Q: What sequence folds into this?
RNA sequence: GCCGUGGUGGCGGAACUGGUAGACGCGCUGGACUUAAAAUCCAGUGAUAGCAAUAUCGUGGGAGUUCGAUUCUCCCCCGCGGCACCA
């Protein structure tokens, strides 16, 4: 029976105060049509909805107005729910989840502990945006300008202890207790996702293959080995200086030998003040300061090279230091030109007097690899480094571990306790959930409000029983949304986040619909968490979302983004009250392909509105007596419609499905009477799109069951196969007319038909060189 | 800059694995109904020429492959989205 299940999932919304917008409606209508259709096809469909209700907006609103986030969120949820019901969105409401409820976040905390106990959650210092005046951490978007959003003071980068999830452990495939677990990279091959989204994930992970090379750093007294990562070990002979990022430890290590320490320190101080934004702005102009008094040694030729501190070298990537090869790297080239450093060409093929050459070529000026290709040289140099123990093959990733700490109130508390005696301890599972206190002060004091809630903060140590304190950071809301699709399957369970049986009954998600804005973060984190749960045997699921589709953004009428300030936001409520829910559903589906970006056009709603009205009018023509047979064209068209609409739904091509429904209705409109039988079929295929209209008209037929309890109609494929085809008649590739023939007619038959045809006779009077005949499509005479 | 994605009538968009370009809808034009208007119904609607049959051109621009290209290949232009010094 398992093969008949269907898990249809929507990305659950953040319940914002402004209610559903037309973009939500688009995605949700699509999944609603799909799941209604699958149900009619006999699938055991699960189609849940819930609320991603933790997060900054509710907290900021609380700071502004004093209304508690749980109130704001509940009001919004009520509003969302009633809007969804009005739109005829049919959800399994008994499965509803809310991430900010303690029954839910209890398991978010449990998940944290699972990672913690297995060494996948850890604490380390990390840079945060810090405002000294407010003494608080700021989110990136609050620090975008480099100045604090609240007080206008300058934002600095500060190191704070932060919690991380070790997502890096799951990039590649792994074997764990005999179980093979596919990683975040190779797992992408197994899933039916938009290519763009897969590529976005791949790029985000950013795998680079290369080598680590050990450079000796020396001040003539001490030696220190420093690893650098490079993707171009083949260019090692062209390395003419080394650059380290401003936070690199060797500055501290060699501070007594650095002759220009004050100049260096000044540079480091200034670069610390820079926010990410400023660094991007400054990116074109590369700056740096030489560390006078120390140098590095190229391990291949023992050449001494200068060392620079330069903020174009990132601290978080590789070892925070690079071997610079100006001849073959654009950034190093710019830096070398600016500071007049040596540029040695080691790969021929470019013109290094003008620019860095990053292409392929033959190695020159490179002793042991001269004459080799780039590929060969890479291999040989790595081999050489490994033999001499001065380096090795190595892989680096752009993806860092996931920073999940938030110095915020409205999130799931991190279940950790600090005891002066026993140290850092996980909250015992039996003590979960760690409840978020209600009695907090929202006035902006600067730090996490939890810190000032005594009832929350003070706790007894689970080991020694003495007074201890709780962690007062909360978790990133992406943690909450990384596992909700499991909870839907067993939403009330108090023993476990979801029973394994129930998970295997419905997972993986068969169709996941949501915005492309989640292409990277949410989808990557959710895949990671699914793999963690697989590793520790809570599920057998490696990839949670088998098929993913995005709904494209809906733009304002003028083609720009809908914006509140421009007043161009369309409120679905207004559309529903003016045109009805079915019209809105149909219109949004008829606009164009689901995944495409498309402009809103209120006038166009009239088209689908007329279609619905016409449907109601035509219902008057229905005759119960089937002895009055439908004409052949109606029988053919209704069969075509059942086929086409079904196939189009499967491919999420709702726009063309609706167009076929319109063609069908237009044909019925031309007839005196419509048979009961045909009309029922028509209503059935219309039902997923326009549930209200079709159900009404269905019940008018004195049917006792709801239309949604009836099976999707069958079509007669033999009938469709017999339909005459219109063949295009071409001469030298130019279409001169059409001819109706039986399907699969022989070439010779067609030619003799054409010779008798008044219209085509004249073209065939002379000789022709060749005939190209494609059955049921074209016949082309080459003269 | 890199990666991705798209460019088809006045507009939203259709077109199966290369085979009738413009389905369906909006809008527009003419007609019917009406004292009139709205609504509704009927007819027409890519451009140019023609009374018409029909002909020529036409899917961002340019080349190519093919009997045949919106579809495949190469080059270029423009829009949109993501990433942004990742060594």
A:
């Amino acid at each position: 029976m398992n093969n008949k299940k269907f898990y249809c999932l929507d990305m659950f919304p953040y319940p914002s105060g402004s209610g559903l917008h037309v973009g939500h409606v688009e995605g949700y209508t699509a999944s609603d049509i799909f799941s209604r259709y699958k149900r009619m096809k006999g699938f055991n469909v699960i189609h849940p909805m819930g609320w991603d209700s933790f997060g900054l907006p509710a907290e900021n609103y609380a700071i502004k107005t004093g209304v508690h986030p749980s109130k704001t969120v509940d009001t919004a949820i009520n509003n969302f729910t009633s809007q969804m019901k009005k739109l005829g969105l049919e959800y399994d409401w008994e499965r509803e989840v809310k991430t900010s409820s303690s029954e839910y976040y209890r398991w978010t905390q449990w998940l944290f502990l699972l990672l913690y106990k297995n060494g996948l959650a850890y604490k380390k210092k990390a840079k945060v945006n810090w405002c000294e005046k407010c003494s608080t951490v700021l989110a990136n978007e609050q620090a975008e300008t480099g100045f604090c959003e609240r007080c206008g003071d300058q934002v600095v980068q500060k190191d704070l202890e932060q919690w991380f999830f070790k997502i890096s452990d799951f990039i590649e495939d792994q074997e764990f207790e005999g179980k093979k677990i596919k990683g975040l990279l190779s797992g992408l091959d197994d899933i039916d996702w938009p290519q763009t989204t897969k590529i976005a994930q791949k790029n985000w992970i950013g795998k680079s293959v290369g080598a680590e090379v050990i450079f000796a750093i020396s001040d003539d007294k001490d030696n220190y080995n420093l690893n650098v990562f490079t993707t171009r070990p083949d260019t090692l002979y062209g390395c003419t200086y080394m650059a380290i990022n401003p936070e690199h430890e060797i500055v501290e290590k060699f501070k007594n030998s650095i002759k220009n320490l004050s100049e260096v320190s000044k540079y480091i101080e200034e670069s610390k003040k820079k926010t990410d934004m400023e660094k991007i702005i400054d990116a074109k102009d590369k700056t740096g300061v030489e560390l006078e008094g120390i140098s590095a040694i190229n391990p291949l030729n023992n050449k001494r090279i200068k060392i620079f501190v330069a903020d174009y070298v990132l601290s978080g990537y590789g070892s925070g230091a690079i071997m610079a090869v100006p001849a073959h790297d654009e950034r190093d080239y710019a830096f070398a030109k600016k500071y007049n450093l040596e540029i040695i060409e080691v790969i021929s093929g470019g013109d290094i007097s003008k620019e860095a050459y990053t292409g392929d070529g033959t190695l020159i000026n490179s002793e042991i690899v001269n004459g080799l290709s780039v590929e060969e040289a890479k291999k040989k140099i790595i081999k050489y480094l490994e033999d001499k123990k001065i380096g090795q093959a190595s892989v680096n990733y752009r993806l860092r571990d996931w920073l999940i700490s938030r110095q915020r109130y409205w999130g799931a508390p991190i279940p950790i306790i600090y005891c002066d005696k026993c140290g850092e301890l996980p909250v015992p599972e039996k003590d979960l959930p760690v409840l978020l206190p209600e009695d907090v002060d929202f006035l902006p004091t600067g730090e996490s409000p939890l810190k000032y809630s005594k009832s929350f903060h003070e706790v007894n140590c689970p080991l020694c029983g003495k007074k201890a304190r709780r962690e007062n950071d909360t978790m990133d809301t992406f943690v909450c949304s990384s596992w909700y699709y499991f909870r839907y399957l067993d939403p009330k369970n108090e023993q476990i986040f979801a029973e394994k049986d129930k998970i295997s009954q419905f997972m993986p998600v068969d169709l996941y619909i949501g915005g492309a804005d989640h292409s990277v973060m949410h989808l990557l984190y959710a895949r990671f968490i699914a793999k963690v749960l697989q590793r520790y045997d809570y599920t057998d699921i490696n990839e949670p979302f088998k098929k993913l589709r995005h709904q494209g953004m809906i733009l304002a009428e003028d083609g720009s983004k809908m914006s509140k300030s421009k007043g161009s936001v369309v409120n679905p409520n207004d559309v529903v009250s003016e045109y009805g829910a079915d019209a809105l559903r149909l219109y949004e589906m008829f606009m164009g392909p689901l995944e495409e970006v498309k402009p809103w056009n209120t006038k166009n709603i009239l088209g689908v509105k007329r279609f619905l009205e016409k449907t109601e009018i035509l219902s008057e023509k229905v005759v119960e007596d089937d002895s009055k047979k439908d004409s052949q064209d109606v029988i053919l068209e209704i069969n075509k419609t059942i086929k086409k609409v079904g196939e189009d739904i499967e491919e999420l091509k709702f726009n063309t499905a609706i167009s076929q429904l319109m063609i069908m209705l237009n044909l019925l409109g031309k007839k005196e009477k419509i048979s009961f039988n045909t009309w029922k079929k028509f209503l059935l295929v219309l039902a997923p799109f326009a549930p209200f209209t079709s159900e009404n008209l269905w019940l008018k037929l004195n049917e006792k069951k709801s239309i949604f309890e009836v099976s999707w109609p069958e079509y007669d494929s033999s009938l469709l196969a017999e339909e005459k085809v219109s063949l295009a008649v071409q001469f030298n590739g130019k279409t001169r007319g059409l001819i109706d023939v039986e399907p699969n007619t022989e070439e010779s038959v067609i030619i003799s038909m054409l010779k008798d045809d008044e219209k085509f006779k004249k073209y065939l009077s002379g000789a022709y060189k060749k005939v190209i005949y494609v059955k049921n499509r074209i016949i082309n005479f080459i003269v």
User: Anything to note?
Assistant: Chain A has 25 helices and 33 strands.
